[in-house]
Amino acid sequence: MQIHPHSEFDPSPNGRTEQGLQRVLNSLIKKMHRDALIRQTTNQLRESLQVDRVVLYYFYWQWQGQVTFESLSDDKFSILGSTGADNCFNDEYAALYLAGRVRAIADIELEAIHPCHRDFLRSIQVRANLAVPILIPKGLWGLLVAHHCQTPCSWSQSDVELMQTAAQTLATDSNILES
Questions:
Q1: 51 in Cβ contact with 146 (< 8 Å)
Q2: In the chain, where are the structural domains located?
Q3: Strands, E, within the chain: which ranges?
């Protein structure tokens, strides 16, 4: 009995399939590196600032976004997937963050903020809030936000600088710039 090789069956992948698989693999690797950096950043910030929660609010469309990462002191503070109050974050607020605004609120009950914003913060158990923009060349990629959920907090200049440094680190990472 003789076995003849069949030119119709070639177990090695063709060039196009191999290139397609390599692109998918490269994309997955970049996302894994990006996600690991964000997870590490939010965890380190929460521990350093001694807060209940640090989140990344990612903008996926014109001022529409959601919490895509969080680091928590307790699972009861989870807001993962939260999209925020659509009528609170508008072009006016976006313009402020695009200009580099940092917003530190020591106590939402005493701060002069829009009632919509106060109601939203209450709904996600926030008592004190520190938000910094993540700005990439394309614009506002997201917000890095620290929350005290149980007590007010007087944010220090070093707290603000730590958050800004973390946001800048994220904003300059190649895996984020390409996402």
A1: yes
A2: 51-177
A3: 53-61, 64-72, 103-105, 128-136, 139-148
| The predicted structure's pLDDT at residue 61 | 82
Report pLDDT digits (tens) over 63-106: 788 999 999 999 999 999 998 765 777 778 888 999 999 999 99
Mean pLDDT for each 10-residue chunk of the chain (179 residues)?
Answer: 48 70 86 92 98 95 88 97 76 87 97 91 95 94 96 97 97 86
Q: Which residues fall within 8 angstroms of residue 35, CB to CB, at 6 or more apart?
A: 69
Distances (CA, A) of 114 to 26, 94, 109, 124: 44, 15, 11, 16
Report CA dihedral (159, 164, 170, 172) to the nearest 10 degrees: -150
Whether the CB-CB separation of 54 and 46 falls below 8 Å is answered with yes
Q: What is the pTM of this model?
A: 0.84
Look up residue 123 and give its two tokens. Answer: 């709904």
Q: Count helices and strands (H / E) in the chain.
A: 5, 5
- For residue 147, list its beta bridge partners: 53, 129
What's the CA gap between 129 and 133, in Å, rounded? 13
How far is Cα 163 from Cα 157, in angstroms, rounded to an integer? 10
Domain 51-177: top CATH class: alpha beta
Partners of 103 in beta bridges = 131
